[in-house]
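May I ask you to comment on the folded chain given beneath this request?
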Amino acid sequence: MSTKKILVAEDEEKIRELLTVYLKKEGYLVYGARNGKEALEIFDLEDPDAVILDVMMPEYDGWTILKRIRKKSSLPVLMLTAREEEEDKLFGFELGADDYVTKPFSVKEVIARIKALLKRGKDTEDRTLTYGELILDLEQHEARIGEEKLSLTPKEFDLLQVFLENKTHALTRDQILNKVWGFDYYGDLRTVDTHVKRLRKKMGGLGEKIVTVRGIGYRLEEE
C-alpha cells in the first residue's frame, strides 16, 4: 500500500512541526504549509490524501482554502480552530469539512481522527449497496447514480451508508451521530442536519427520498 500524504496547513510553527513529527512517526508523508498561499500551492502540486487545516492563517484563511479544495476533491479535511463557537463549526461543515479539533488539542487525538478519516473500505467485505440507480461501493469507497460519480466527503459517504443499511427505519439524530461520528463525539445535533442537507443536494432527485421525520430525525423511504 502506498504511503498516504498529508498536508498540514498551520501558521504556528510549533504546532505545525509537532504535528509533522507525530504524523511521520505513524508512517505518513507530510507536507507543511505556513500560510494559505503555500497550502494551495502544495495541494495543487502534491495531491495529498488528507488535509489538516487551520482556520486562521495569513494570505488565505481556512474557509477560503476549504472552498477551493472542495471544488476539486472530496479528500478528508480536518479543521483546527481556536474558537469553540458551534456556529463556526456548522459553517465549516456547510463548506465541506469532515471533522474539527479545537485548540489547545491533544496531538494523539488529531492523529486518531486523521486515521479514522483516512480509513477507506477497511474491515468491509467486497460488496456494494444499491438503491434504485444509486450504487455505493464500499470497497472502492465510491458512490454513483447511474454513470455519474458523486463527489462525497468521507462523512457524507458514511452517512449515506447508514441510510442505505437502515432503509425505511426512522433514525434519530443521536443514532446517526453515533453511527457516523462515534460515541465520543460531542458536537451539536445540528451537525447531522447540515450533512443531510449537503447529501440530499448531491443526490439530486434521489435526495428527496431522505425524508424528515418530525420530532425524531430522518428516514430513507422505500425505493
About this structure: The first helix runs from residue 13 to 25.
